[in-house]
Amino acid sequence: MTNGPALAHIKDLQLALGDGPLFDGVDFVLHRGERMALVGANGAGKSTLMRIIAGHAEADAGEVAFASGTTVGFAEQETSFDGFATLRAYVSAPSAARGGIMESAPVYRADAALESFGLDADRIPADLSGGEMRRAALARVFAADPDILLLDEPTNHLDIAAIENLEKRLRAHRGACLVISHDRRFLERISTSTLWLRKRRVLKLDRGFGAFETWAESVETEDARAQSRLELHLAQEEHWLRRGVTARRSRNEGRRRKLENLRTQRREILAERRHGAPALHAERGAESARLVIDAVKISKRFDTDPLIANLSVRVMRGDRLGIVGPNGAGKSTLIGLLLKNVEPDEGVVRVGEGLTIAYVDQRRDILAGRKTILDALAPGGGDQIVVNGKPRHIAAYAKDFLFRPEQLRQPLEALSGGERNRLALAVALAQPANLLILDEPTNDLDMDALDALEEMLANYDGTVILVSHDRAFLDNVTTTILGPTGGGKWMETPGGWADFEREHGAFEARPPAPAQRAAPPTTPPPKRATKLSYRDERRAAEIESQLPKLHSEIEALEARLSDPGLFSADSATYAKLAGDLEDARRVKMAMETEWLDIEVRREMLREQ
C-alpha cells in the first residue's frame, strides 16, 4: 500500500521518569493512509508516548510537528464523562488535542456515530458498562472525523462483533491511525506498519503486525550476537585490568572509562531480561473426577427472552472450554449455571467429585475488600504466601507478576487495569484448584503477559473454562468453543475461534427453522426404550457410592507416599504402596469410564 503525505513527524522525543530515561531519541513519521501498530513490552511507555503526541503530556526534549490544518482524535484507555448529561452531549463536545481544540461534531453526526456503535444518544453516562463506555469514546473520535486517530487499547471490553466493526471502520478511514492494542488478531487485520518501542527507542517495520514476530526474532538474534561480542570484549578488558595496569595514569583513563561503559551496557541488557512477561504458574490441586461438569438440556430465560435454551454440554477433565458471544448474550449466566450458582429454569447440572475451583470474574471480585497489593496477597497478614504447597515470600511471588517490592503497599484504587488483572490472577493462581474459571482474562494485559498466560494454561494439568473476546488467545488455548447462534440456541465446536467462525459465522440472531409437517405413519413405529435397564441403573448407583471411597483411598496413599523418609526407611513398604496406588487409580479410571458410558446412554434415551 502506498502512503500519502506526512501528517505528523515525531522528532527525537526524550523523557525521563524516576532514575532513568523512558525514551531516548524516539523519531518517526506518520503518513496519510498509514495504520501503524505501536507495540512494546509492559512499562516501555507506549501510552505515555501516545499522550505526548496527543498533547496530553509533555516530553523533556524533542518535537511533535503536524502538517498544516491536521486534526487529531484521541481515545484513551480511561474515559471521563464528567459534566455530560447524555451521550449526545459527550460525543458532540469539542475534545482537546495538540495545537488547540478540535471542532465539535454536529449533533446529527454524533447521533449517527452513537447509533452505529449500538448506543442510544439519550443514555446517561453514569449507567454505562465498561464496553459501552469504550464504544462511546470511539463514537466521539469517529464523529469528529479527524485526520489522525490515536487509539489506546480500543478493543478492551468490546465483544467480537464490535471489534470486527471497528476493524472495518479503521480500514475505511482516510487519514492516519496510531493504535496500541494487545489484541493480536485485531492488529494483524488493521495495521499497515509496525512501530516497536524497545530499549528507549523505536524500530519501524514497513509491514503490518502479521510480520512482526518473524522480524522481532531476527532483531533479537542480532542483539544476542552483539551481546556475545560484548561479553568477549568485556572478558578481554577484565583480563587487562587484572594485570595491574593502574587507572591513575592518564593514558589509561580512556580504557577505564571504556570498561565502565561496557559494564553499564551489560547491566542494561540484564535489566531488560528481568523485566517482561510475568512468571505465571497455576497449582492444580487434587485430581478431579474424569467428568467435571455435565449439563443436560438446561434453559434460562430473563423476562420472555431465552438466553439459553435446551443446552447440553459436558466438560471433561483436561478440557479448555472457551465461551464466546456478544455482550449480553448470557456468557456469565452460563458460567453461573455450570457452577450451580444459578438455578436453570429447566434441565439439570451435575458436577464431578473432588472439584476445587479458582474463579477470576470479569469485575475482579476476588480483590473485593482488599486495600493494598500486600493485603490482597496475604489477607491474614504476614509476609508469606503458600504457593504450590510451599511458603514463598510475598515480594518474590509478587515479582513473578511484575510487581516491585515498593508497590506492595500501593492502594488497589491506584492500580491500572492491567495491574488489577495481574493481581487478580496472582491471587487466584496461588490457590490449589483443578478447575480454573477465567472471565475476560486478557483485558488490559500486554502481549508479554498474554504469552505468559497462554503458556501457563498450556502447562496447567487441570480443566479450564474461559470467556474471552480475544480471537488469537482463543485459537492458541481452547480445545472447544461454545457460542450462541440465536434464539437461545448455543453450539459447541471442537477447536478454537477460527473453527467456530468457519462453522457458524458471525453472531447474528437466527430465526428458528419452520417446523415441517410429517406425514402420518401407515404403521405404528416400534416401541423404543425410554429409560435405562434395571441393571444399568443399579450399576451406576454402585459406582456413585464407591467412587468417593476410592477417591479417599487414593488420597491416603498419596499422602503416605509423600513422606520423604519412607523410601529410605522401608523401601519394600514404599514399593507396595506405590503398586496399590497405581492399581487404585486404574480401577478409578475404569469405573469412571463405565459410569460415563451409562450416562451417555441415559442422555441418548432422553433425547429420543
Task: Describe this structure in a few short sentences.
By secondary structure, the chain is an alpha/beta fold. It is built from 18 helices and 22 strands.
Secondary structure layout plus pairing:
Blueprint: E1 6-17, E2 20-31, E3 35-40, H1 46-54, E4 61-66, E5 72-75, H2 87-92, E6 96-97, E7 100-101, H3 107-116, H4 130-144, E8 148-152, H5 160-172, E9 176-180, H6 184-190, E10 193-198, E11 201-205, H7 212-242, H8 250-274, E12 291-302, E13 305-316, E14 320-323, H9 331-338, E15 346-351, E16 357-360, H10 373-377, E17 384-387, E18 390-393, H11 394-400, H12 417-429, E19 435-439, H13 447-459, E20 463-467, H14 471-477, E21 480-486, E22 489-494, H15 497-504, H16 534-561, H17 566-569, H18 571-607
Parallel strand pairs: 3-9, 3-10, 5-8, 8-9, 14-20, 14-21, 16-19, 19-20
Antiparallel strand pairs: 1-2, 1-4, 6-7, 10-11, 12-13, 12-15, 17-18, 21-22
Helix pairs in contact: 3-4, 7-8, 16-18
Write up what this structure looks like.
With 608 residues, the chain is α/β, with parallel strands linked by helices. The protein has 4 domains: 6-214, 3-Layer(aba) Sandwich (Rossmann fold), CATH 3.40.50.300; 230-274; 291-504, 3-Layer(aba) Sandwich (Rossmann fold), CATH 3.40.50.300; 534-607, Helix Hairpins. 40% of the residues lie in helices and 22% in strands. The protein is built from 18 helices and 22 strands. It has helices at residues 46-54, 87-92, 107-116, 130-144, 160-172, 184-190, 212-242, 250-274, 331-338, 373-377, 394-400, 417-429, 447-459, 471-477, 497-504, 534-561, 566-569, 571-607, and strands at residues 6-17, 20-31, 35-40, 61-66, 72-75, 96-97, 100-101, 148-152, 176-180, 193-198, 201-205, 291-302, 305-316, 320-323, 346-351, 357-360, 384-387, 390-393, 435-439, 463-467, 480-486, 489-494. The strands form 6 sheets. The chain has a 6-stranded mixed beta sheet, with helices on both faces. It has a 6-stranded mixed beta sheet with strand order 16-19-20-14-21-22, sandwiched between helices. β12 (291-302) and β13 form a beta hairpin. α3 (107-116) crosses α4 (130-144) and α16 runs antiparallel to α18. The two termini are 58 Å apart. The model is unreliable at 245-251 and 509-527 (pLDDT under 50).
